[in-house]
Amino acid sequence: MKDAHPPIHDYHQPGDLFLGGIVSHSFIISNSIDFTEESTPVLLEDLRVVIKNYQHILAFEFAVKEINENPQLLPNVTLGFHIYDSYYSAKWTYHDTMLLISSLEKFIPNYKCDGQNNLRAVIGGLDSDISLHVATIVDIYKIPQLIVGPAPLMNEKAPGLSFYQMSPSENLQYSGILSLLLHFRWTWFGILTVDNENGDRFVKNILRIFSQSDVYSAYVERLPRIDFAAKSMDMLLKGAKIHDKVMKSNANVVVIYGESNTVAILRWFPYLSELENMPDKPKGQVWIMTAQMELTSMCYQKTWDTEILNGALSFTIHSNDLPAFQSFLKSINPSKRKGDGFIRDLWQHAFDCFPPSPVVGKVQEGSCTGAEKLESLPATFFEMRMTGHSYNIYNAVYAVAHAIHAMSPSRLRNREIENGRELKPQIQHLWQLHHFLKAVSFNNSAGEKIFFDQHVQLVAGLDVNNWIFSSNQSFHRVKVGKMGPQAPPDQALIINVGTITWHSWFNQVQPFSVCSKSCYPGMRKQKKEGEPFCCFDCTPCPEGEVSDQKDMNDCYKCEDTRYSNKYQDLCIPKVVSFLSYEEPVGISLSCCAISFALITALVLGIFLKHHNSPIVKANYQNLTYTLLISLLLCFLSALLFIGRPVKMTCLFRQAAFGIIFSVAVSCVLAKTITVVLAFMATRPGSRMRNWVVKRLANSVVLSCSLIQAGICIIWLSTSPPFPDVDMHSVIEEIVLECNEGSVTMFYCVLSYMGFLAMVSFTVAVFARKLPDSFNEAKFITFSMLVFCSVWLSFVPAYLSSKGKYMVAVEVFSLLASSAGLLGCIFSPKCYIIVLRPELNHRDQLMRRKY
């Protein structure tokens, strides 16, 4: 824009009292847009028209028209107005504001000589900067300003400026956006904001508020401002970088805090990409727009694609349809408009024709036919339905009228008579209007109550609209939700998801917008270093822990009576487990124990039947019977280990096993010593003859057995075994077991048996070369080798087993070692007694011996 003032665009209507209007963000913007790249066509126009903003002017006029036609509101008073274009320039905004408070015939700042056109209030300012520029002047004169956009951010340069804000509190928008994100579980979003102090305030507030609900931003970008005083190339290059960042991001939701013409900037985005290999169908986004933004388009954007905006969700100022307003719009025609300095340019750019010239008889080429109607324009350029900002302007005009009515109930209705002349109404002090304006409360023509809160902010809700664009460039604004102004924060948002149309890129499936995909049950979130909390990796739960919901921060352990399944997403009840007679292992061991016990009893019966035979009498007959009886008891004691553990079985099974086994091993040791001493006693002059007596054998068996019995008594008296429940050894089972009480005493019993076995094995090894006729030394050697091997392998097998299998290992070792003794020592003798009786004679014994 050059320093010269552009053509003044205004609209005036005289009256006893009048209102000032500043059309912010320019209804008409003077400038040209240059493109330096050769591949881009050069677009040069003197005017860039935002046609949709013309509705705000018409809403202003319509409200004044209704008030003047209402004899009950301001009787005998005509309300007029003057509307000026701000040209998005502080310089001309100040200039136009001075025009409002000065005489109309001749512009002299701060000078007013006429008694008409008494300015009562200023309405306007879709953008905060324009509102601030106006306020710096009108506040000096205590003239109220009602703004329809966001309140300017106050600083030390502009203290104490007051505004009557016709839009709801921004805190309501923060709450609404957060509720919307949480409703759809969008925890990762981008932020685009205008590059000014209001944008910085918005970013600061939502980052603080949203992080408390674990909603975080992927990026924050400042949109370039449409500054028509400068070249546009820098703005476009910056826009290209922003567009590419939005397309590359994994955030599918973008929250935009913009101004009234920000949508016009967004429509540039598809044409600004610098990405290589751009897909035919660009990535879709869910745009969440704040209430300050409107669907606006520049005239040169008539044929531009609108797909990028399809499916957008827009928080808009709550508004109601006014059927009379639509009828008013349909009646608009340039030929019937007087004092409207905007309509000729609008008609020219909207319909590509020239309205009739005010100069009589002058005909222009390309003149309009007169059949042009506003309702024929696409909705992206002009809507017949009253927008939220127009609705606020409409209510603002009525608010001023009601305040004037309340301030002067008698002075404005009664005119003073002086010398027979009717005088104009007395002029009240302007500052008095503030008091009545703050307290104004009325129902508008739509039946809605209009009033301000203690912060002179309109108490109103927000609508959530879904923008739907069709292939023929038609536009539909569908209301899908609302935000109540006085409901609790967690109940304020009401949303109808089924009526939302998403961008075609999402194939009508509700979009997701998260930094990281959800962690399914069985996984837990692991935070990424240096990233927001919503950015995480999914790691499996540790063994024994589960997560049964999505996106759990930590896994948890199941109760002791449950365990985690294979996928670690469910706790399954554990089964009760013990070595039962009803399961294959228990049945097998029980059958083996009973079978070996029967075999032992059979062997004992054979030996008792042939007790007078030489092979039975050899190696001390009573030791043989004692050994067979102890082996029989060993086999039967194995049954104490099978079945549900109870107090009695737990108390005696280990002790019985230890003592009985010690008796058996002691008998083997006594037999071995007897064999050795017997052959040593046969030598002439040997001193061993006196030792070969029954007393020696009995002493060995008795003493060795008593030592083991003493160990077991100490064990049972100090820390006896008891029934117990093991929840942890086997993950899937609750193991019923016998707690050994003192593990030390248990291993003492085993160690003592091992000691006896090693001694027996050693003695037997020394006696293996003695004459073999009825000599058991070799058989005892082999039997003890089997015995020691079994119990040496028992220790690691027992320690590596869990649950009922520990008991099974012990029972198996007991049966195997006992069977080894039985088979190795008695099977050769049974063979001779039963199958080779001819060898069971003393002559045969003596012949072999010598």
Which characteristics define this entry?
850 residues; alpha/beta; Rossmann fold; six-stranded mixed sheet; 15% strand
Give the secondary structure arrangement, pairings included:
Layout: E1 10-13, E2 17-23, E3 28-30, E4 47-49, H1 54-68, E5 79-85, H2 90-100, E6 118-124, H3 128-138, E7 145-147, E8 164-165, H4 170-183, E9 188-194, H5 197-211, E10 216-223, H6 233-248, E11 253-257, H7 262-266, E12 286-289, E13 313-317, H8 323-330, H9 343-351, H10 388-407, E14 417-418, E15 421-422, H11 432-438, E16 441-443, E17 449-451, E18 462-469, E19 475-483, E20 493-495, E21 523-527, E22 536-540, E23 545-546, E24 556-557, E25 562-564, E26 571-573, E27 575-577, H12 584-609, H13 614-617, H14 621-637, H15 647-681, H16 694-718, E28 722-726, E29 733-739, H17 743-766, H18 777-800, H19 804-835, H20 842-849
Parallel strand pairs: 2-5, 2-6, 6-7, 7-8, 9-10, 9-11, 11-12, 12-13, 27-29
Antiparallel strand pairs: 1-5, 3-4, 13-18, 14-15, 16-17, 18-19, 19-20, 21-22, 23-24, 25-26, 28-29
Helix pairs in contact: 1-10, 2-3, 10-11, 12-14, 12-19, 14-15, 14-19, 15-16, 15-17, 16-17, 17-18, 18-19
Describe this structure in words.
With 850 residues, the chain is of the alpha/beta class. The chain folds into four domains: 10-168 and 320-451, Rossmann fold; 170-319 and 462-506, 3-Layer(aba) Sandwich (Rossmann fold); 523-573, no CATH class; 584-849, Up-down Bundle (Rhopdopsin 7-helix transmembrane proteins), CATH 1.20.1070.10. It contains 20 helices and 29 strands. The strands form nine sheets. The chain has an eight-stranded mixed beta sheet, sandwiched between helices. The protein has a six-stranded mixed beta sheet with strand order 1-5-2-6-7-8, with helices on both faces. The longest helix is centred in the C-terminal third of the chain and has 35 residues, at 647-681. Residues 1-5, 24-47 and 410-427 have low confidence and may be disordered.
